[in-house]
Task: structure prediction
Amino acid sequence: MTQDVTHKTQHTRPNAQYIVTGAELGIVIVSWNVRELLRACLTSLLADITLAGVEAVIIVIDSASADGTPAMVQAEFAQVELIACKENVGYVGGNNLGMARLGLAGDDAGFIGAVPPFVWLLNPDTVVRPGASRALLDFMRRHPRCGLCGPKLLNPDGSLQHGAFAFPGLVQLALETYPRLWRFRGTRLDGRYAPAHYEAGVPFRIGHPLGAAMLARTEAVSRVGPLDPGYEMYAEEVDWAMRMKRDGWERWCVPSAEVVHYGGASSGQASERAERTKWRSRQRYYSKYYPALKRWLALQLVPKPYRDASGD
Result:
């Protein structure tokens, strides 16, 4: 089924084909002009949930792609619900639209039926390795206070990609914006966890996962709300994790679950705009969670071309 959405707030209509009673997992994928990557993502995802016996609802939100993505999804993935938007609704807007379809972000997008206990926000430029979905779900079932978790992310060549981070502070910001400090990039000072944490294969607590493949408990989402629509993309997962932390929910990385992440496939199509959006989003985060002095200091570290005193 394809839902044709003109505006972010237009209703979609429920279809019994996609109401999966007792589904334990809802999966939302927001796509923009990455047809081939999305095909590989869906192929790997369907193979993994089939292997694991996971009952899932998969929703693809297409943000007005011009590369034939909607036609490909319709032709090749009949078991996937496609919501084809006539305008680019953005990463956050698309994910919130998908969560609303699952009954997690209000009722303005046509709630499909039974709310699954978990929702996985998955980027289209990912490939799910066998066993990943089951490892994440098993962990969440064993840890009822975990509100948000992520897998071990890998680069396309199989090397480690940092996919879990401490909450950002002034040190991380300085390391990014001052070239003399770049030798400390990728270290604990930069909010990264040591590769040994991932290689050990044992789950570990984190500040927040990278948004490319984060799995949330719907009970936590119902308490803290969906992604903040004030972000278009970037920092939205940090904000979500911070709201969960403040509400008492844990965040973990589950290294036994592996997902390959290509990274930047959509944002790279509009790199300068993406860079501006990144800094605007970060400043929104600073304005929401930093006290006045720390917020002022953070603003001084933001590159001048991207500075916005309002943070909005």
